[in-house]
C-alpha cells in the first residue's frame, strides 16, 4: 500500500496475536464482562456470570443470529486476543468449574483486555511515519507491556499498570499531535467531541474525534486523512464510501459497530465486517 502516513508493520507477530480466537478461549467475554441490554447485549448481566447463551463447549448458541436477537454489541466486540491468552495462561482453571477458578480466570482476562487496548494503539503508532521520532519510546512501552503480560496470572505489582498507561497515553498524545502537524501544515485541527446524529462535512483532514461521541454520525463519503479516532464511539456511524485508510487509532470494535459498504476504505490491520453491504451508495 502506498501511504503517506503508514509505514511497514514493525510488529507483524504481535498484530496477528491481537486478534481474538474463540476456538482457543473459554467464552471469557461472555462471562467476565458486565453488559447491559441497552448497549446491544442479550440482557443486563453482572461481571463473572456466564451469558445464558454460552454453550458447554464455550461457544455461542446464537452466533449466527446475533443481529436478529438484538445482540449487536456481541457482534462488534473484539477482545484483541485477550481471551485465548488468558485461557492459555490459566489452562488449569479453564476446565475447573470452581467459582474461585472462574473468578481468577476472569480477573486475568480483564487485566489483559486493559493492557491490550493500549498495546493496540502503541503497535499502530510504531508504524505511523509522522511519529518516527517516538519509535524508541514506543518500543520500550511495547516491551514493558509484554513484561507485564508475562507476570500473569500472578497479580501485577501495585501501580505498575497505571504508570505504564500514563506513559503510553503521553506518547500517544504526542503521536496524534505529530500526525496533525504533518497533514494540516499549520492549520488548526478541527475538534469534534459531540457529533452524535450529525452530518459531518467540510474538511475533516487531521480532525480530532478522540473520545468523541459519534453515535449515528454521518461520515459517509468523507476523506478522513490523519483523523484521530482514539476511543470515539462509532456505534451506527455511517461510514459508507468514507476513506479511513489514513485515519489513526481506529479499532476493529469501532469498525464492527459502525455501518459501511464495499466502498469504505480501512486503515492497515482492520478487516471489513462480512455483514457490511457490498453495494455502494
Ligand atoms: S474473549 Fe475473545 S477469544 Fe474469547 S470468546 Fe470472547 S471474543 Fe472470543
Ligand atoms: S449472546 Fe453469545 S456472544 Fe453474546 S454474550 Fe451471550 S454467548 Fe456471548
TrEMBL record:
Domain of life: Bacteria
Pfam families membership: Pentapeptide
Protein name: Pentapeptide repeat-containing protein
